[in-house]
Design brief:
15 helices, alpha/beta, ten-stranded mixed beta sheet, 3 domains, seven-stranded antiparallel beta sheet, elongated
């Protein structure tokens, strides 16, 4: 199946041999008529081969086309451009589960051809606010620092902010292996990998195949040596498949997109080739709008059982959280999970720095009947105690541990145990019940009078609650 067949073509098409200019991934065609923005094209090479592209801009009688397979070998004198009179589309079917596809939606796993149930426009659109259902219910990732302290809720978009060399891909693979919803509901994961290396691709395949997770995953793979422009299609194709599975097949769908930084770099490359006025750090001024068209496709729709939840992963250049990519992403999404280089150097996995992390919709997905009635109180107590322990570390560096009170020493040891047992759980998944149990065991090391945020639940969940009740009797 060719990329053109995957993205679709019209039988009624107009062909031009008026290519005037080629720069980067762009081709300029003159004297065109009735050409539409985002229209798909087929570029017929001198040797008879074909490449696919998309209309990026139309100005007067000149059309600017971005070529997915690159512009090398295009001869402006003999190359022909055929306008296909339709936008980019992807074939969708329940049979996509368990398959590995290119960024354009073309199967690359050597399996049987996919018989499409329908063909959908990949552009998509944000969910009408009137039709949106409030995000609710809990998606269990098996990661204590996420489930316990920054809970992921169905219909939410919660990005992971990583840094160069940090194990974001390992964390993504672990979440894909472990993530689950309530029993009796169909759950699927759509994974869109953009600009990953062959080693990373082999790692993901080995992880998915060895654990059997691939059966519920639709894996879109755009490699680092694949066409840059293809990266601009990958998240849109992945989200189109996710919307189909969620809103037409009533599945709970988790979309993992890695790495959004590579997507934004591709956006900047195309913008530079178009000679557009750059914005911050050379990125196009419309990058905020472009990212919002991706992130806002997450959510739930009234009257539909399914949901689309997004977990985009991005690498912060120079670990700078104020860089345009994480900065704009933070404006659009509902919180963030931040990875720590300091914890990674100490061998903590996953190295999630919980203090700058946030899940704005956490309260909608936790509590009695969803997780457990003490969940919010436990999270608040853990945050407060860990923050106090972190502050005391800085004080110890100045005055030494001997100058601390007994309570302060307990907080200092709590911070160490928190990083070792709650954050640093390794690659073993935990249920939310196990996470809360470990949390109570850690909190039992603090004086009872310090557990102010969980005082209503001490008699029920504190490890020494039974002993205290017996002593009182």
């Amino acid at each position: 199946m060719t990329p053109e067949a995957t993205l679709g073509r019209s039988l009624l098409s107009v062909e031009y041999q008026t290519v005037s200019y080629v720069t980067g991934p762009l081709v300029f065609v003159q004297n065109v008529h009735d050409v539409a923005y985002n229209e798909m094209v087929s570029i017929v090479m001198p040797d008879g081969g074909e490449r696919s592209g998309q209309v990026l801009e139309v100005s007067g009688d000149t059309a600017v086309i971005q070529v997915f397979e690159g512009t090398q070998g295009i001869d402006i004198d003999v190359t022909r451009v055929r306008f296909l009179e339709e936008v980019a589309k992807v074939d969708v079917s329940p049979d996509l589960l368990g398959r590995v596809l290119a960024g354009t939606g073309k199967p690359i796993d050597g399996g049987a051809p996919i018989i499409p149930e329908k063909r959908l426009d990949i552009t998509g659109s944000p969910i009408n606010p009137y039709c949106r259902e409030q995000p609710a219910d809990f998606i269990e990732t098996g990661i204590s620092a996420i489930d316990g302290l920054n809970t992921l809720v169905r219909g939410q978009k919660l990005p992971i902010f990583s840094g160069s060399g940090l194990p974001a891909n390992e964390l993504a693979a672990q979440i894909i292996r472990q993530a689950s919803v309530k029993s009796g509901e169909e759950f699927a994961i759509v994974f869109g990998a953009m600009g990953i290396t062959h080693r990373e691709a082999a790692y993901f395949m080995q992880q998915f195949e060895s654990t059997g997770a691939l059966e519920r995953v639709v894996f879109f793979m755009n490699l680092a040596d694949d066409p840059t422009v293809e990266r601009l299609l990958t998240p849109k194709v992945a989200l189109t498949v996710a919307e189909y599975l969620a809103f037409e097949k009533d599945m709970q769908v988790l979309v993992v997109l890695s790495d959004m930084t590579n997507y934004c770099e591709a956006l900047r490359e195309v913008s530079t080739a178009r000679e557009e006025v750059p914005g911050r750090r050379g990125y196009p001024g419309y990058m905020y709008t472009d990212l919002s068209t991706i992130y806002e496709r997450a959510g739930r729709i009234k009257g539909r059982k399914g949901s689309v939840t997004q977990l985009p992963i991005l690498t912060m250049p120079d670990d700078d959280i104020t860089h345009p990519i994480p900065d704009l992403t933070g404006y659009i999404t509902e919180g963030q999970i931040v990875l720590s280089r300091h914890l990674h150097r100490r061998g903590v996995f996953p190295p999630i720095d919980v203090l700058p992390c946030l899940s704005r919709l956490m309260n909608l997905g936790i509590g009695e009947g969803k997780t457990r009635e003490d969940h919010r109180a436990v999270a608040n107590q853990l945050y407060a105690s860990y923050a106090q322990g972190r502050d005391l570390r800085r004080l110890v560096a100045i005055v030494g541990e001997e100058a601390l009170s007994d309570t302060d020493r307990r907080y200092l040891h709590f911070a160490d145990d928190f990083e070792k047992h709650i954050i640093g759980q390794g690659d073993i998944g935990r249920t939310i019940e196990e996470t809360l149990t470990v949390a109570w065991e850690l909190m039992s090391g603090l004086p009872m009078g310090e557990l102010k945020r969980v005082r209503d639940f001490i008699d029920q969940y504190h490890p020494t609650a039974g002993e205290n009740a017996t002593a009182k009797a």
